[in-house]
Fold this protein.
Amino acid sequence: MKILQLTDLTKSYGKIKALDKVSFDVPEGTIFGILGPNGSGKTTLLSIVLDVLRSDGGSFKLFEEEPNAFHRKRIGSLLETPNFYHYLSARQNLEIAAEIKGRGKEDIETVLKQVNLFDRRNSPFSTFSLGMKQRLAIASALLGNPDVLLLDEPTNGLDPVGISEIRMLILDLASKGKTIIMASHLLDEVEKVCTHAVILKFGKQITSGPVSEILSNDDLVEVSSNDLDRTLSVLNQFEGLRKINKEGELLVLDFPANKADLSAINAFCFQNGVVLSHLQFRRKSLETRFLELTH
Ligand code: ADP
Ligand code: MG
């Protein structure tokens, strides 16, 4: 089952193309990241899916059908910070939210427990940390027990503890069967939390698919010697090596993640008559890979 299917979705604000023919599918049960730097069209995309904005071109489906109000009832969303009342308690705020949404009055205890705020249900909102406020916002999105959660930058502005609480909450909700679609400008977050992702840059889709594929984390090792051709032919016999690229005086060896063993490479070369003059890891930082993907 596909939760969301976009086909050539396009949206401009005057001359700015916020979305340019974006097409991808969100399979059921995934944590799907929409990753891109600020201004890449993430919020625009979520707003169109939620019927807050209209696209100029292309189309999308929800639950494999033309979108309608019934489908949107199955989606809980957190697009911007809700206006909670500071002097009211968590529970009272959720009662008001349920009233406004017309759903979920009977879920208030459940969602408070889900986001780990049940013990604080009677405390005024004003006494909450930023992380607790954000968890209450997610509780509000969970009213009506939606199958799908749509979250825009759910950890924005939080401290490390708050960030980790939200990430654990997202993983927990997904493990209970909810499909989660979240926008983020943080590669690290998408890598840690999401199973699938699409990468956007200036409204253009760079890539999409399982996170393990699009954010591949190969080990790269640089070697050099005074006889590169011979080194190349020796290393071609080395087991577990994916491929070798020649970069000037260097050979760059590409291994699957965490599979490169420098001592083993050194010993193998030496046994085959090659003395390496250079041998070191070239770990691609997340940053580098993100830049690679978005430039
Ligand atoms: P993101 O959420 O990835 O930061 P947005 O969807 O908010 O990106 O914005 C995408 C682009 O569209 C940006 O260049 C932004 O300045 C522009 N944009 C967004 N909303 C409006 C608007 N209401 N009017 C004009 N331009 C907008
Ligand atoms: Mg945004």
About this structure: The radius of gyration is 24 Å.
